[in-house]
Amino acid sequence: MNKQYLLLSAILILAGIGLMLTPKKSAVKELNPEQLLLAVDDPSRFLSTDLITERIIKKDPSLLLIDVRPAEQYKVFSLQGAVNIPLSLLFSEEAKTLLGQEGKEKVFFSNDDILADQAWQICKRIKMNDIFVMKGGVNFWFNTIMKDNPPNVTDDSKAQDLYTFRKAARQYFMGNTNQSQGNSSESEGKKEGVNVVKKTTSKSSGGGC
Amino acid sequence: MTGPLIPMGYIPEAWNNVIAVLLGAGFGFTLEASGFSSSRKIMGTFYGYDFVVLRVFFTAAITALVGLMYFDYLGWADFSMMYVLPTYLTAAIVGGIIMGMGFAMGGYCPGTSFCAIAIGKIDALVFTTGLLIGIFAFSEAFPLVEKIYESGNLGSIKVSDSLGISDGVFTFILIIVALGMFFGATLVERKVKKVEY
Fold it and tell me: Which of A20, A96, A203 minimises the CB distance to B168?
């Protein structure tokens, strides 16, 4: 056999032995503790219920609402267009595909902030970007958007404008009605099935010959 | 581009397509220089008179793998930033059989057929026409085959993870397997009658 081939083979085998002896790196790349602490301390991850409501009404295509509550609660009521990924299924293949979508701002929400913030911290820890939490969760959303809370006459114009917006939003979700108390009818929370977008190949090279 | 330089921000996103074209040109040149624009040479792998396809592709694979592993170890590249195509097992098996049949019948794979067209091979032109018809038929019939296309999703898995061994051990095993195949291929070539082309 050609000596050059033998030499190249020997080099490859030595390189392979060298790789076997190198220390194994952790398979999961995590955000280092300092960065995670800074991120947790930054309140910009919280988006207000009013902002989310506005984006739902405008049908913002970059918004991906993720309901991290158990499936039973999601079936009873959820925000329009939200998909359900219970916290325990956050690392399922379907959830990974959904969360891996580029160009989408993933907004977690639960009944309050707790479950949603846990989901955010888990995802942030594995260096996921474009993730947010809806401040106050579904309960706060319902109390501010669906219930009529008129401002005092002495409140400033900003509060008046906010009230007008919430009133309009309420009409959008409930239909054209002037009921003062929101009852969680089916029309409020029309849910869509889990819209799993498979095979996102934005970074794919195609490969092969 | 799946490399780590753009995701890590070293090269602007706008260069993506430019780099893809340059890499494609380099890849095409290497295919042609290796003789892959000849369907007879490629068919040699199936008939046992020429294993250059096996040697070139396996050498490329293990060289790239060893290089990337050392780059990762030295901190020059981040292996975890590499995009790993998700494995759709059923689709891969069905697609592999269809592509293998086409490969064996036509003597080209998609890349080498375009390479052969570039130097004026008529058989490659016929092959590529069939390839384009196949792409069109697949696109039109996609709703019928969608379930197969999306079935068996195992995610972005690696063989080393599935086997529960480290990347280094897997690389070493692959090197030994590749060298063993090269040696075996040489023995087969000696026994099979040489074909002139």
Answer: A20
